[in-house]
Write a structure and sequence with these properties.
Number of strands: 0
Oligomer: single chain
Radius of gyration: 14 Å
Distance between the termini: 29 Å
Strand content: under 5%
Largest sheet: none
Helix content: 55-70%
Number of helices: 2
Length: 70
C-alpha cells in the first residue's frame, strides 16, 4: 500500500522494477519472476481497504494471465 502516489508514479516504479528483474535475469542463471497488482484509493478505511485489495489482487491475476500468453 502506497499512500500519496499517483497512478503514473506507481506505473513508473513498476516499470523500473521490471527493468531490474530483466537485467538480473539476463545476467544470472537463476531467474526471477514476479506477479503484482495495484489499486488506487482516495481514502483508507476498513471497507475501502477490502475493495482496494480485491482490485489489486485481480490486477495481479490479470497480469499473470497476460504474461502466460507470450
Amino acid at each position: 500500500i502506497l499512500l500519496g502516489r499517483t497512478e503514473k508514479q506507481i506505473q513508473a516504479g513498476l516499470e523500473a522494477f521490471e527493468k531490474k528483474i530483466q537485467e538480473h535475469n539476463a545476467a544470472h542463471t537463476h531467474k526471477i519472476d514476479v506477479a503484482y497488482g495495484y489499486a488506487l484509493a482516495d481514502r483508507v478505511d476498513a471497507q475501502q481497504i477490502k475493495a482496494v485489495l480485491r482490485q489489486a489482487d485481480q490486477r495481479m491475476y490479470d497480469q499473470k494471465a497476460s504474461r502466460a500468453q507470450y
